[in-house]
Each structure stands twice: as C-alpha cells, then as structure tokens.
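Suppose you are handed only these lines of text.
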Amino acid sequence: MNNKYELIYEGKAKKVFSHNDSDKVIIEFKDDATAFNALKKARFEGKGKLNCLISARIFELLIKNNIPTHFIELKNENTMIAKKIKVIPLEIVLRNTAYGSLCKQTTIKPGTVLVKPLIDIYLKNDELNDPLLTKDRIELMNILSSKDLDLIINLTIKINGIMKSFFKNIQLQLVDFKLEFGYDFKNDILLGDEISPDNCRLWDLNQKNDTIVSLDKDIFRNDLGGLIEAYSEINRRINKLT
Ligand code: UDP
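From them, the structure of the protein bound to uridine-5'-diphosphate can be written out as follows.
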C-alpha cells in the first residue's frame, strides 16, 4: 500500500488504512496466519488475496440478501474499500456442526450435526484469551444494549441461512463461523471483518466416505498441509458459480 494512506490499525490478518473519504477505510488482507491466540504463526504466500476475494464474494451475496455489511468494493486483489465502523468487541460464533472448542468444553462429539444452530459469544480481547461470555456478562460490561444484541443474533441466524445454502451449492458443509459487527457513523449496525476460510469451518462434501476434509484454517491449526490449495479450491468453486 503506498504511503499516502495512513495506517490506522494493524491486526493479525489485516491492515486498516484511512481513506480520503473519512467515512471509509481501506482494508489490506495479509498473508500472515495465526492460531491459538497467536501462539502459532506462519505466512502463506497468496492467502491475503484469496481471503479478500472470497470475502468480497460473500459480502456481495449477503448485501443482495439485505444484510447490512461494511463492504463497498474491491480496490484490488488483496484490498477492499469498506465503510468505517466502530467494532463491537464481541466475536459471534454460530455452529451448525459440533467441532473445535465446543467439543473440548462439552461432551458433544465432533461432527454431531446440531438440531438447531448454536450461538456462542466471546469477548474480543487477546489479553483475556477471548473468553466465552453469557448474556448477563455482556449486559454487565455495558458493551451494547440488549436490543442491539438481539439484532446481531438475528442477523447472524439470517446470515447462516444464506451462507449454508450458498456453500452447500458448491459442495461445502458450513460447520461454523465467526462474525464481528460494528456501528457506522449513523450508529447503524453493520457486519464487519471478513468471511473467509480463516474464520469459517468448511468441509468438503465431495467425499465418498465419512472422513472430514477441512478446506479452512484447521489445515494450519492441525498442520495438515495444503492451505493455499484448499483456499484456492474454495475460490475456484465460488467463481464457477457465475
Ligand atoms: N474463530 C475465529 N477466530 C477466533 C476463534 C474462532 O475466526 O479467534 C472461528 C473458527 O475459525 C471457527 C469458529 O470460529 O470457524 C469456531 O471456533 P472454535 O470456537 O471452535 O475455536 P477453535 O477450534 O479455533 O479453538
């Protein structure tokens, strides 16, 4: 990114720059990957570009379905222009199938298809290791009103419906995903962050037996190898749709 734009914020996977229009930001997707609260780190050449392109396509799909998002347009392959938001420090995880931390913290077996989607809300706070919250704890911290919390939960359920059928169409099982929301300058709630294989679990449905084939960040978490190939495959399947 050339230096006429000021770096406002650098996260683990993205850099956020100012835009000439103060209501907008420029988001650059990095090739860095982190897991387990950044205890594990690596770089995958081309990951930023793939996550940016995949996210853009998903945001476009959601916008078409009347979900308010921060996405405006792609600037280039690894950079997008988005509406500036004040991020709500909550990570909203929706699970369709049990896996990951849910199976470490409960007796539910990995791969169990949940009768109804489960929503787990975590505090976005690296120092505290993103703890799982309760509704009462959220209220206690005064992070947002219960009306806004309900709005975010309802949006998450709607987003799940849209994404689940979209991914099923390209032979992918949407196991779970993490969303972040924020307030724009009008104080409206928008979906922010990214939607990519870095924060969604996607399993390949093109399998003859029951083996789980992850096409997402679990490849990195579990050292399975072939991360760029998997992310490229998702991008290829999405692009074949149009
Ligand atoms: N997730 C994420 N960022 C986090 C934690 C989780 O994007 O800091 C995503 C993760 O990729 C998965 C979903 O949220 O799609 C549920 O993750 P889980 O709670 O099972 O955590 P993990 O297995 O990573 O400990």
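What can we learn from it? The chain has two domains: 7-83, 86-226. The helical segments are 47-64, 101-105, 135-141, 146-169, 218-221, 227-240.
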